[in-house]
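This section describes the prediction task in plain terms. A model, or a person checking by hand, is given the sequence of a single protein chain and must write out its three-dimensional structure as a string of tokens. No templates, partner chains or ligands are provided. The sample shown here is typical of the held-out split.
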Amino acid sequence: MRPRVLVTRRLPGAAVAVLEEHADVDMHTGERGLTPAELHDRLHDKQGLVVLLGDRIDAAAMEAGPNLRIVANVAVGYDNIDVAAARERGIVVTNTPDVLTDAVADYTWALILGITRRLGEGERIVRRGDWKGWAFDFMLGSSVAGKQLGIVGAGRIGRAVGARAAAFGMSVAYTNRRPVEWAGATAMTFDQLLATSDVVSLHVPLTPDTRKLIDQRALARMKRSAYLVNTTRGPVVDEAALAWALRERLISGAALDVFEREPEVHPDLLALDNVLLSPHLGSATRETRLGMADLAARNVVAVLGREAPLTPVQ
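The expected answer:
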């Protein structure tokens, strides 16, 4: 019998075709995600599972799929999957690194420039019809040239963001949980980086240690002229603390592409002009999302064909 694979959300046809060459595919096409009960019911006869970051795959889900051999996450981060539980059951977990590095790095820079030059505020003013014409001191933002970009997390994406800094005349400082060599960038402690950086960009995975890494204490350490940018995982930032810091002008602004309880956004942030908000678009290019889906599909095919996965989670 051909193996059976559950895909929890709609994926591009090309990626589904890769799966269908080797397996029978059960793809959920509803607008909302599967409930835990629905997920468990559809897992009972599946050997492969393709999920997105909005799907929580815990021990109970794995128990509901006793024949599961692989969980392929269409994302780099995998905090939505209980990797330890999968390891105990001999289930391979894979992710999609590298494919989205440039897209997220480019988008991070879009947010950096957007918040420092107040693009969101300006666009809202024009749409409201409140713009009265050019004025010498109207909507002044902040230049990035000659400033320090602080990278929290020197992984693939963090380094790609830092590599683009020279084009904008910025120096790069970084902090990382493990010592790494990064030519042309300055290693700092977390507190040193917060205290000296003009833009702080977050690129750490969501773990117990990084949950609410940016809290009141961290925000109080930052320059009053500094900006915070988050394109990693929402819970890395304490949104209530960030709203407080922005209201009190302890920092100049923030740009967020991810949120603590997506798709909800803390109501205090919605009321503030000095925060730029976007709906988790970091990897949202056609080319990148197709590449992510294709890599996830090829991981499933490899494992079900008793070959080594292409990008296993360690």
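For orientation: The CA atoms of residues 122 and 135 lie 13 Å apart.
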